[in-house]
Amino acid sequence: MIKNIYFDYQATTPVDPRVLKKMMPFFGEIYGNPHSRNHSYGWEAEAGVELAREQVASLINANPKEIIFTSGATESNNLAIKGLADFYGDKKKHIITCVTEHKCVLESCRHLSEKGFKITYLPVNSDGLIDLEILKKSITKETMLVSIMGVHNEIGVIQPLKDIGKLCRDNGVFFHTDCAQAIGKIPLDVDKMNIDLMSISGHKIYAPKGIGALYVRRKPRVRISAMINGGGQERGMRSGTLSPALCVGLGEACKIYSKEMDLEDKKLTKLKNLMLSGIRKECDDIYLNGSETKRVPGNLNLSFAYVEGESLMMGIKNLAVSSGSACTSASLEPSYVLKALGVEEELAHTSLRIGLGRFTTENDVKNAVKQIVNEVQRLRALSPLWEMAQEGIDISKIKWAAH
Amino acid sequence: MAYSKKLIDHYENPKNVGSLNKESKDVGTGLVGAPACGDVMKLQIKVNEQSGVIEDAKFKTFGCGSAIASSSLITEWVKGKKIEEANSIKNTEIANHLALPPVKIHCSILAEDAIKAAIDDYKNKNKK
After folding, report:
1. In terms of DSSP bridges, do strands B39-47 and B27-34 run parallel, antiparallel, or are they unpaired?
2. How far apart are CA A88 and CA A280, in angstroms?
3. B19: nearest CB among A315, A334, A387
4. Chain B interface, best mutation among A303, A307, A310, by max B CB count within 10 A
5. Rounded Cα gap, residues B72 and B97, in angstroms
6. Is the ipTM here above 0.85?
7. What are the backbone angles phi and psi of residue A397, rounded to the nearest 5°?
8. Nearest 5°: CA angle at A136, between A130 and A172?
9. Interval A321-342: pLDDT, tens
10. What is the helix (H) or strand (E) element at residue A299, kind and residue range?
11. Is residue A197 a contact partner of residue A174, using CB atoms and an 8 Å limit?
12. What pTM, to 2 d.p., does this model score?
C-alpha cells in the first residue's frame, strides 16, 4: 500500500500540534464566556482571546484593538467589502477589484453591483500580477475601495501590496486585501503597506477551520457596518460569542509564524526547487503558471502539456493535489484564473496545483516527483496531441470541432 | 468521484494503445474532440477488405480517465466486428458498461463519434 501524501496546502492545512496544545484547555477547564465580565471564568477565557488578538496583530504590525475575530476569510472579505459599502456607500459607489480574486470577493462585489455600485475588475498580466498603471487610471473621485489579494490561492503570485497601498492612500481610497494565503508566507506590515482592511484565515496557517480575522484600521479610522448584529462583541463590528479555543489557535499559529517565517520560507524554497527541477529533468514542456519570481514557494501551479489534468490526478492518486481551487474542483471548466492569465484553454486543461507546506518532507517530494514523472510519461504515450507534437504537427492549426 | 472497477482497469491498463499507418488504404482514422475542451480521441481501425471485418483497432486519447477508458473499451468491442456492426454501437452501451457518472457521459459520446469517424474515413478511402 502506497501512503497518501498531502500536497494541497492552499486548500487547507493540518492544525500544528503546538497550536492544538494551546487550544486544548479552552475545550476543557477554561470554558467561560469570554464576554462575561463579572467572574473569573469569563476573565480567564477573555485573557486567552486577548493574548491571541495581540499575537495576530503583532504578525502584521497592527494594534490588537484593530483585530476583529470572524469565522474565516470568507466572512472577513464579506464584512470588509459589504460593511464598508454600507457605511460609505451613500457618498462613493465605485469599487475596484481584480478578475482573479477569490470567489467570495467577486461575489460580494457582484452583490453590491446589484445594489447600484459600479465595479471595475482589473485584468492581470500573463504573470498574474495587476498593472499599477491600469489601477491608477481606474481610480476616480467616486472610488471608495480597492480590494486586491496579497498572495493568490491558485497560482501563488504576490501582488505589489505596498505600491497598491500607496496609490490608494494618495487618492483617499480604502485598501482592503485578502491575505488568507499571504499571512505567514510573506512579511506584512499594515502601516508600511498602507493597508486599511486585511482578511486573515486560520486554516491556511495551521490553525483550525472556522476562525479568521479582519484587521480594521483605527488611525485614520475606517468604519464598517456590522453584518451580524447582536450583543455588540468585537467593538460592535461582529456580534456573537467568540470561541476562545479557536481564537487561541489562530493566535498561536500567528506567533509561530512571527518566529519561523524565514525558516519555513527557506525550507519550502528548497523543496519547491527540488520538485520543479526533478519533474523538468525528466519531462519537457512543463509550464509554471504565474510569475516565476514574485511567488510564494509553497505553490506550484504547473501545466503538463499534452496530458489532461484530471487523468493525471487519477494516475497519481496517492498524491493529494488539486486541479485549481477546492471551491471549483467539481467543475469541468478550466480555471477562470488561468484563463485570466491568458493561458490557452488546452494548456489550462493540463494544469495542477501542487501545494507544499510545513509538514512536507524531502522524501515526500522525491516520491511525488517519481510518481508524477511516471504518470506524465505514460499518459503522453497515450496522448494523440503528444504524438502530433512529436511529428511536428502544429495543434493550433488543426480545425477542431468544439463539443 | 468514485469510479467503477471496470473504468479504473481500462484507465490503468488501457487496451490497444497505439497507432496504425494512417496512409494505408485499409486503415480508417477518426480524430474527434478538441484540445480546448479537454478531450481529443484518435481511433483507428484496420479493415479486412474482403470480409469487412475490423481486424485491429488502436487509439490514443487526451482526456480524463473516463475518456481514456471509453476509448480503450470501444477498441476492444469493435475488434472482430463487421464495420456495420461497429457503426451501430451506442454511447449508452459504453456508459452503462463503465458506469460513467452523469458528468462524464460526453466521454462515451466522443467514443461513439470516434468509431463513426474512423469508419467514414475508411469508407471514403475505399469508394468504388
Report:
1. antiparallel
2. 51
3. A387
4. A310
5. 12
6. yes
7. -90, -10
8. 120
9. 998 655 444 456 788 999 999 9
10. strand A299-304
11. yes
12. 0.93
